[in-house]
Automatic annotation (TrEMBL), chains A, B:
It is found in: Cytoplasm. It catalyses: 2 cob(II)yrinate a,c diamide + reduced [electron-transfer flavoprotein] + 2 ATP = 2 adenosylcob(III)yrinate a,c-diamide + 2 triphosphate + oxidized [electron-transfer flavoprotein] + 3 H(+); 2 cob(II)alamin + reduced [electron-transfer flavoprotein] + 2 ATP = 2 adenosylcob(III)alamin + 2 triphosphate + oxidized [electron-transfer flavoprotein] + 3 H(+). This is Corrinoid adenosyltransferase. InterPro entries: CblAdoTrfase_CobA (IPR003724), Co_AT_N_dom (IPR025826), P-loop_NTPase (IPR027417).
Amino acid sequence: MSEKSPLVAAMSEEELDARHAEKMRKKKAARDKILATKTQEKGLVIVHTGKGKGKSTAAFGLVFRALGNGMKVGIVQFVKGKWETGERAALERFPGEVTITAMGDGFTWETQDRQRDIAAARQAWERAKAMISDEEHDMVILDELNIVLRYDYLAVEEVVDFLREHKPEMKHVVITGRNAKEELIDFADLVTEMEMVKHPFRSGIKAQRGIEF
Amino acid sequence: MSEKSPLVAAMSEEELDARHAEKMRKKKAARDKILATKTQEKGLVIVHTGKGKGKSTAAFGLVFRALGNGMKVGIVQFVKGKWETGERAALERFPGEVTITAMGDGFTWETQDRQRDIAAARQAWERAKAMISDEEHDMVILDELNIVLRYDYLAVEEVVDFLREHKPEMKHVVITGRNAKEELIDFADLVTEMEMVKHPFRSGIKAQRGIEF
């Protein structure tokens, strides 16, 4: 919280306006200077992790931003049962521009079958590898891949090695899920941690249409 | 990083499978028990804050999830110049289902004119109030409202009071921007802080189509 200093509190509106204009001039100059050094374009490896909400939702937002830019997007869901209703219906407005494929049989605590989960993870990863290395997709979303890596259904080294060796220069890959492994964080270009500050589940509110699904 | 204990490392595949099934059974039971207590539905006040990326992008993801569920969405951008190209093109696939309106003249360090910024903020807030209180929209996004509150162009008390008194019970309101004020965090149902772990700007990579805009 920014407390006003006594000096600022005593200023007239005109003084505040002049002070503001000067501050903003400096801010813009500093910003322009930094931006001038940013000239490189490349496909990014992006990770959304942390215990808070918004990891998959922000990936879903990136999907639509990319689609709006005429880019083609591939999505592999490593946990089935997500992105089912609202997401799929919204994606249907972009026929031929987005490919979505889901792994296996739902959350791992629903199946309770490790061997089936491992087989499903491998199968989804094969689909992911094809999308990462093809020339068709500009962006690939690997939703909840981190959960699969965390359970060691797939080795993080295998994923990082594949990205390093086979991801085309300009392709963006977005990986979501809590507990991202260090090796993946080290390799990624952009990592955001979503932290839970306050969650309505605490107060008895259930998952709702339009918010969670 | 989960290090394997020597005990787990020595287990056979069969033992690992059995151990996994037992753990997952317990996890599912605990989850189901918690979910059973979550019965309430209500419109949420959601805040995305923090210095990391994904605040507006996750709000944008919520827009499409809601649209995919047949809900109507209103968007007020308190900072113009965002959500311009990719976002607008994607939203055009949902004619009549989403209303988008932008305030004023761009980032405050671009205008360098405090009085104009204040007038634009007030005007945008009037649009926001209409969308928050109407019966048409199921979800309202107030993108970068936090920046306006931070500069005190609009009093946080006014915003919180309006939400408390005029937001219909089932309407969702999503507020984005770094430096969310305490009063807003206290009032909100769901608050996520996006933390920057790693950012490609550091290494000379510029803002790119499909990622930043």
